[in-house]
Amino acid sequence: MGPVAVLCAIPQEFAFLADNLTGAEVTERAGMVFHAGRLDGHAVVLARAGMGKVNAAVAATLLIERFDCRVLLFSGIAGGLDPELAIGDVVIADHVVQHDAGYTAEDGFVVYQAGHQPFFNPHDELGHAADGDLIARVRAALEELSLAPLSAGGGKKPPRLHYGRILTGDQFVNSETLRERLFRELGGAAVEMEGAAMAQVCVAFGVPWLVVRALSDLAGSQSHFDFRQFVDEVALSSALIVRRLLPVL
Ligand code: ADE
């Protein structure tokens, strides 16, 4: 059985997981860093890929083809789109969509209402649904989260967990107008810059995937300030959840 891959984009997402990896063997490839070792006794390859869809796709391909990983997880941060969600909440993707793929209208915005663009996407659906069995195991493993605090000694409340659609694009969303459109027209709970690209590679290779994102901001006009303030704290919370999931992957 191959190792579990945990893909991260930025150093804050990677740091806590890397610090807890034992016996790590470090490889550099395509300008990316891969740490292969054991996390809580599980064989894991941790990758720091950099931001965006192309980096995620390159790293995912290497994790599958070179490191023989049997399942790929993304652990990191996102901007919240659903107005019911708050900074610190965690969204686990049951579906991912690339929100910047398609064609544009006169105003320059991508036309979302048209949904899937058959001439553009080489597959039949809008985005990708997560593996149902994997999500069921994840739900079961995280059910008792509210009973057991995640952070050792921190005394903090565990984060609120949501399952929903995560949108991916090569843009940091810092706009009320776009935030509102992405929620209304594509039904996104959260937006980030890598998840759907990783998923597309996994689907192409027939490998299961999971995206876990903690909200650092709400993708509106304050998002760049909030991101800076909350990135460390929420990246840690996503990493703690991923560690909890290792036994069921
Ligand atoms: N990751 C964290 N916040 C984000 C945002 N507002 N847009 C895109 N990716 C993000």
Automatic annotation (TrEMBL):
Statement: the UniProt record of this protein carries the keyword Electron transport: no
Known pathway: Amino-acid biosynthesis; L-methionine biosynthesis via salvage pathway; S-methyl-5-thio-alpha-D-ribose 1-phosphate from S-methyl-5'-thioadenosine (hydrolase route): step 1/2
GO cellular component: cytosol
Gene3D superfamilies: Nucleoside phosphorylase domain
Keywords on record: Amino-acid biosynthesis, Glycosidase, Hydrolase, Methionine biosynthesis
Signal peptide: none
EC number: 3.2.2.9
Gene Ontology BP terms: L-methionine salvage from methylthioadenosine; L-methionine salvage from S-adenosylmethionine; nucleoside catabolic process
Lineage top rank: taxon: Bacteria
Pfam family, one: PNP_UDP_1
GO MF annotation list: adenosylhomocysteine nucleosidase activity; methylthioadenosine nucleosidase activity
CDD domains: MTAN
UniProt domain Nucleoside phosphorylase: residue ranges: 3-246
Record has Hydrolase as a keyword: yes
NCBIfam families given in the database record: MTA_SAH-Nsdase, PRK05584.1
Alphabetized PANTHER family for the sequence: 5'-METHYLTHIOADENOSINE/S-ADENOSYLHOMOCYSTEINE NUCLEOSIDASE, 5'-METHYLTHIOADENOSINE_S-ADENOSYLHOMOCYSTEINE NUCLEOSIDASE
Protein name per Swiss-Prot or TrEMBL: adenosylhomocysteine nucleosidase
